[in-house]
Amino acid sequence: MRFSGTDTYVATPDLTAAVNAAVVLERPLLVKGEPGTGKTVLAEEIAKGLGAPLIVWNVKSTTKAQQGLYEYDAVSRLRDSQLGDPRVSDIANYIRRGKLWEAFTAPERPVLLIDEVDKADIEFPNDLLTELDRMEFHVYETGETVAAVRRPIVIITSNNEKELPDAFLRRCFFHYIKFPDAETLRAIVEVHYPGIKHRLVEEALRVFLETREVPGLKKKPSTSELLDWLKLLVSEDVAPETLRERDGRKLIPPLHGALLKNEQDVSLFEKLAFMMRREQRGG
């Protein structure tokens, strides 16, 4: 089982090496990087490339590790007992399987994505240590032990919103997805929009990369936002020459709402445009 990218995902050599190392070591692959650099999509493409089923556990601020194993619905059981439902005699009817249970008992070796692990409480990663190590857990209500039929390929993503515990990090193979260079961005664009106008792409990439380098920018536009912006540029038939015009009146990129996602950054560009116009007028 080796991952080498897919025809819809541009995977750099260091990324494919990290994926395959995690598979060989049978350790979770912890992937960090800027939002919009393809961390979540990576798990989907690994599943596609290896022909494996994908199981997704989307972590939220309220998510508890126990939910990944199972949940016992005591409220439903109490209600059914009051209604005389015969199902109450078997407590297993009120055990809801979580994503880890689903992954451990999958008929084929699955890819399990634990997405945005850093959104949850700081104790969340530590609470999963034993289960991810042993690939089994105990169901206290029924007395059974759920063990992995075959060890799933575990991909864990993080946006670096909070530090992860050292004990958790020791059990993972780590990879940081660097922001793509211009050449890789061109390849990504070609994968998503084959045959797109070369001149438009070159001018758009130049403006995009310059935008990311503006000092004081609160949120740098990501790869996914570049793709959205290009789609709009093509849809609106924006000429490459329009992107090349960078005087004070046109400093803010056309259709900038795809790139600038908060009022502070738009205001920053407006201030820069004002300063440029004033310089062009000679102070």
Characterization of the model:
There is one protein chain. The protein is α/β, with parallel strands linked by helices. Helix content is 43%, strand content 14%. The chain is built from 13 helices and 9 strands. It has helices at 13-25, 39-50, 65-69, 74-82, 99-104, 123-127, 129-134, 166-170, 182-192, 198-212, 223-235, 240-244, 263-280; strands spanning 29-33, 54-58, 70-72, 95-97, 111-115, 136-139, 144-147, 153-158, 173-177. A hairpin with a 4-residue loop joins strand 6 and strand 7. Helix 9 (182-192) packs across helix 10. The longest helix is centred in the C-terminal third of the chain and has 18 residues, at 263-280. The chain is elongated, with a radius of gyration of 24 Å. The model has no long low-confidence stretch (mean pLDDT 89).
Measured as a percent range, the helix fraction is 40-55%
Beta-strand percent range:
5-15%
In this structure, how is the largest beta sheet organized?
5 strands, parallel
Spell out the helices and strands N to C: HEHEHEHEHEHHEEEHEHHHHH
Structural shape: elongated
